[in-house]
Amino acid sequence: LFSRQLRVAMSIYKNDNYELYDCEPTIAFMEKVDNLIKAMSSRTPENALRKNADCPMRKAIIDFDQYLRDWEKKANEEKLKKKRNKKKSNVENTDDFAEEFDFPITTSTLTGFKITLGTTLELSKFLYDKCNYNYLMTSRLNQDSFEKFYGIM
């Protein structure tokens, strides 16, 4: 879904298909997610998370974490702006405003993402500094086995 091939195809066909004319933000998002998936599922030393700041896997994790934080900040600003506008218009409505705001992921999912990304970076720093690791293959840090097990049931 987030593959490079799909992003290239979207770029190629955006001029020929009116539905793809403004797909650059989608392509950028897909690239961020693809880079994060690669960073969080490395199985070889070549693709592992390394200590140096120019490590592409480290950059992908930091970039996505910042992207989530910026997204959350913007969403909260929009929510506050709508709330203020609603008060100014003096429209009577008994619905809870939080239910009206359409944020695509739940607060707990967002928090989970931020914790996972942050702890991955913290764990890697600990392993580099205290245990003399040169790199961290991140594939074992996720819940795939757990999810596969319960997916079978």
From TrEMBL:
This is Uncharacterized protein. It comes from the Eukaryota. It comes from Cotesia congregata (Parasitoid wasp).
